[in-house]
From TrEMBL, chains A, B:
Its EC number is 6.1.1.15. GO terms for molecular function: aminoacyl-tRNA deacylase activity; ATP binding; proline-tRNA ligase activity. It comes from Lysobacter capsici AZ78. Consists of three domains: the N-terminal catalytic domain, the editing domain and the C-terminal anticodon-binding domain. It catalyses: tRNA(Pro) + L-proline + ATP = L-prolyl-tRNA(Pro) + AMP + diphosphate. This is Proline--tRNA ligase. Residues 38-470 form the Aminoacyl-transfer RNA synthetases class-II family profile domain. It comes from the Bacteria.
């Protein structure tokens, strides 16, 4: 591609409306152009990147045995009524009335359509297992579309749906897709994690999200440094830090007149926050359904995890206790609460880490006082109820026993899901099994946000000069820049020859023959993130060299022609 | 591709709902599956064909210098109001209200969006000429969607839009796209014609439709056997058949008591229909806007062309005359009318062919009688008004003076159009010209119905056994069929080896290892239209040969391995 024949249109201005770096850089680089809220046109430059992602996804899906189809974007209401989602899906479903007053939607996902396709196409177990996928435009009517293509309303998605006679078959295909997603993101050159996910209300038996790691990611992920374990921080199991030490201090009362938080108490006492225990007063229900006052204990540096807490018996709909309830049960005000000698009818739930503590500090249940040197089994009974009720933090042992957890932020770009038989049952999809009996197939679904990957990759790969694409996603792998071609025809010729050699060698190369001044040209090429830049100049030619620079290198090098080809070809393998 | 791992799902039944052969065959072959009225899912088989068309279109557009973009399907109402098309476009525009009660449409075309894109992207003449295209899903809310993907509501289209400072530049790009379309349809292996088209109300200065020729086509096309000339029959100029012969008969009155049509009169008199003249009584308006009675004369075997007639002075809104008006002006009833001695105030318009006739037959303006041996200048005045007012017919001289016209039926699959400045003006798109002055660019637009091409190709290429794809559109170029692989492992091995050789040679091949009986297998492969079929059987292997058959050949041949490879490779060039 000669850039003089390509519509490259960068901007020096930083767009005011963009809140995150990928949105800013995509607008500055001219990759996208806003049409309306959450609707973007992909420019020639942007589309080159999008197509590279699309191609990698398609090739890996094909290699994994999935079969491509193409379903309509517009879907009839009747199918969505069969699964009850016409109402349940909510405001994100863009509903459309056609000229005959029939209702449709712009599909945000295709479970209904593929299940309808399957009940027409699939009749026998011999046709299973099968995995149909498509790469297709979706629409979700976000209340607040933002962040450019990161959360657009219209977006490009790869969605796959598999059908199986047995759960074991579904499990195998789930693993196949899990592995395939790993190959896709690895091939795209992205740092990512497969994260164990909550299956939520849909209730499948397994689900993983694939996150591209980036500091700006919306989700916090706990991952092991010694294994593949990764989970959303809120879902990651927080295990005990190890065995409890022996008691070494005496129980004593500490004067804490205004110190109501663990931080303040620790500061006053000059001890580590990890020596303190937070007591959170809540109200659940007892076996008879009556309100039950409880204290949830977590270490001072830990945060209670509401999801985990709500999974305990009687706490499905727990609430924080009122001050009156607290005073009634503990005789003190919030800020001075603790599990030692609770007055009456108090359920005490200790986080695993708290159960492993010795010589710790808690509120004294007396206004203005805390207790220090507290020890289980001596100053109060061994905890009756020990549970995982906190968020995992960096440094925790990995729940799988291998390594320790780190915390990273991630952007969800893929999701694999065992749907089970929910949709097949709702839409009466059956096939004959090998005994001739009708059976309801199990289904899996597997999504990748193709257009979102482009933005996520930028969040992960950028610097002050602009985007620094992984090689597989770059609009071009290499750009040959010509300096002042009009001064010396030999420069233009040498640049063209080098460019043609690169193309012949299978490199996706461009020739920047736009005739810009070097500064403007280099700024463009850095902004749009091309991995390899080669500069052809009169001076360089005289010395028999080209100036080569990798996008991530701090300095340029002067290389001869062979070295340039080797460098780019080698890196483009 | 091994068919045992591909979801091929043909049907023996002929679908009752399909009216045309392409729709029938696409359903029988399992290429598409109906989701709702005018909405189709492309199965794995159908999508393979669709993608081949898409790829050919994309590669040729790129080679022609057009640059690919991707615009949203959903478009805001505001843009359509700028051009006035929100109301004018009519019922085909699928209007959508989002959750914030803002109006959008599912784009049936993208003139508004690309012009909006251009007014943000294009600032200077230096960026022009430029031609942006996309291959994208469109929606037109047809009143009566039918014929499968031939007239679906949701469909895949390639639409391109070019921008130019001068009309001359537009003309050059128009010719470039015209030539590119020719290359695309030639590459796809389709018989087609570029047809001069009416620019209709949009009023561009040039427009051609590209038609795939097929007996079932909706449009009749007149084309020259001696040049590239082609036009819709209704638009093709009908030239005079040649100089008028000298009069050789006497004027005489013929008794035609019940013969009111040219056909009946010619039959009664035992003469050719080409000797008779039809007189059509119409009412237009005179120079003062008052109703003016007129006779339009065409040869008995010709049909009046209403479009051409309406372009004559005073006939823009002409209507057929009532019987009372006819009796008032001509003194006779319909069926016996003619131009000889019209009673009063009758405008006579003779088609060019009529003006060239001698010794012809017309109504006598007397009930029950016709006149024969009529000659211009002797029995009535030379025609005062001679014009082209009929449809062209087969055998007419071509209007460009080269060859004679034939008539074929066609299916419109492409359209190139000089839009001029209509959209740019409405949406205030300007660029600075080389003098620094703001100027409004001229635009061209160029569409191809990508999904429609698939159906049109089948209309042109089929037989009793099914589809007979042109090589470039076939789901696979070649299929290797294995007969009874379980009887003899050597057969399965030889088939696999042959299949792999074909793939290595760059042939898009499939291996039919589904284990079907030969009859069912061959019927499938013929139905889905694969050009090259090779059968590997125990008997063949014993004789050192494979059974080869081209889809269009009447018989199979036994060839050795080398000959098979040469045959398929050679044809697949």
């Amino acid at each position: 591609m000669r850039l003089s024949h390509f519509h490259l249109h960068t901007s020096k201005e930083t767009p005011a409306e963009a809140e995150i770096i990928s949105h800013k850089l995509m607008l500055k680089a001219g990759m996208i152009r806003k049409l309306a809220a959450g609707l973007y046109t992909w420019s020639p430059l942007g589309l080159r990147v999008l197509r590279k992602v699309e191609r990698a996804v398609r090739e890996e899906m094909n290699a994994a045995g999935a079969i491509e189809v193409l379903m309509p974007a517009v879907q009839p209401k009747e199918l969505w009524e069969e699964t009850g989602r016409w109402e349940k899906f909510g405001g994100q479903l863009l509903k459309i009335k056609d000229r005959k007053e029939a209702w449709y939607c712009f599909g945000p996902t295709h479970e209904e359509v593929i299940t309808d396709f399957a009940r027409n196409e699939l009749a026998s177990y011999k046709q299973l297992p099968v995995n149909f996928y498509q790469i297709q435009t979706k629409f979700r009517d976000e209340i607040r579309p933002r962040f450019g293509v990161m959360r657009a309303r219209e977006f490009l998605m790869k969605d796959a749906y598999s059908f199986h006679v047995t759960d074991a078959d579904l499990g195998r295909e789930y693993q196949n897709m899990y592995d395939t997603y790993g190959r896709i993101f690895t091939r795209l050159g992205l740092k990512f994690r497969a994260v164990f996910a909550d299956t939520g209300a849909i209730g499948g038996s397994a689900s993983h999200e694939f996150h591209v790691l980036a500091d700006s990611g919306e989700d916090a992920i706990a991952f092991s440094d010694g294994s593949d374990y990764a989970a959303n921080v809120e879902l990651a199991e927080a295990v005990s830090p190890g065995p409890r030490a022996a008691a070494s201090e005496e129980l004593r009362k500490v004067d804490t007149p205004t110190q109501k938080t663990c931080e303040d108490v620790a500061a006053l006492m000059g001890i580590a926050l990890t020596r303190t225990v937070k007591s959170i007063a809540i109200v659940g229900s007892d076996a008879d359904g009556k309100p039950q006052f409880a204290l949830a204990l977590v270490r001072g540096d830990h945060a209670v995890n509401e999801i985990k807490l709500s999974k305990l018996t009687g706490l499905a709909e727990y609430r924080l206790a009122t001050e009156a309830e607290i005073v009634e049960h503990l005789g003190a005000q919030p800020g001075f609460l603790g599990p030692v000698k609770p007055v009456k009818n108090v359920r005490v739930i200790a986080d695993r880490s708290v159960a492993a503590m010795a010589d710790f500090v808690v509120g004294a249940n007396e206004n203005g006082y805390h207790l220090a040197g507290v020890n289980w089994g001596r100053d109060l009974a061994e905890p009756a109820e020990v549970a995982d009720i906190r968020n995992a933090v960096a440094g925790d042992p990995s729940p799988d026993g291998q390594g320790r957890l780190g915390i990273a932020r991630g952007i969800e770009v893929g999701h694999v899901f065992q749907l089970g038989r929910k949709y097949a049952e709702a839409m009466k999809l059956t096939v004959l099994d090998d005994t001739g009996k009708a059976t309801t197939p199990a289904m899996g679904c597997y999504g990748i946000g193709v257009s979102r990957i482009v933005a996520a990759a930028i969040e992960q790969n950028h610097d002050d000069a602009g985007i620094a694409w992984p090689e597989a996603m770059a609009p071009w792998q290499a750009v040959v820049c010509v300096i002042n071609p009009k001064n010396d025809p030999a420069v233009a010729e040498a640049a063209l020859a080098l460019y043609q050699d690169l193309v012949k060698a299978g490199v996706d190369a461009a020739l920047d023959d736009r005739g810009l001044r070097p500064g403007a040209m280099f700024a463009d090429i850095e902004l749009i993130g091309v991995p390899h830049r080669v500069v052809v100049s009169e001076r360089g030619l005289a010395a028999g060299s080209f100036e080569y620079r990798h996008r991530r290198a701090s300095e340029a090098e002067n290389l001869d022609r062979g070295a340039v080809l080797a460098r780019i070809g080698g890196l483009s393998q």
